[in-house]
Amino acid sequence: MAAPVRTLCCSVLRQSSRQFSTTCGVQAGEKWRKEHGLSRSGTEYGPLTDLPDWSFADGRLAPPMKGQLRRKQEREVLARRIVMLNSEVDRGMEAWSEKQEEAKRMEEHKKSLLLKPKGKLLMKKQSKS
């Protein structure tokens, strides 16, 4: 029963003078904006998005809109996450360098425990240095 409906629908679309597209719509200029380091669309950030739409005649700013408050909060959350991840990387680098220094100290300690040259070998070593 579903097949006749589909056939009818397709035949109606073929007879229609309007074009029907099934591809996903890509915003115009998105690729160019990405290549030039800009936002995907012109409405993600920038003066048209971030600044108030109006102000009072005496120069006072308009109260922030819900979208502006939401974007501000999202940016603050992102900034806090960046700072936290950056501090984690710093702690990891410090731990890694301490581990490298400890391995170097252990290697030097092992070398100091090796038998020392004596007698003629010690004299040859001192004369070479």
UniProtKB/TrEMBL annotation:
A Gene Ontology molecular function term of the record: structural constituent of ribosome
InterPro entries from the UniProt entry: Ribosomal_mL52 (IPR034596)
A Pfam family recorded for this sequence: MRPL52
Entry keyword annotation includes Protein biosynthesis: no
Keyword Mitochondrion: yes
Keywords: Mitochondrion, Ribonucleoprotein, Ribosomal protein, Transit peptide
Gene Ontology CC: one annotated term: mitochondrial large ribosomal subunit
Any GO BP: mitochondrial translation
Location(s), subcellular: Mitochondrion
Protein family: Belongs to the mitochondrion-specific ribosomal protein mL52 family.
Protein name: Large ribosomal subunit protein mL52
Species this chain originates from: Sander lucioperca
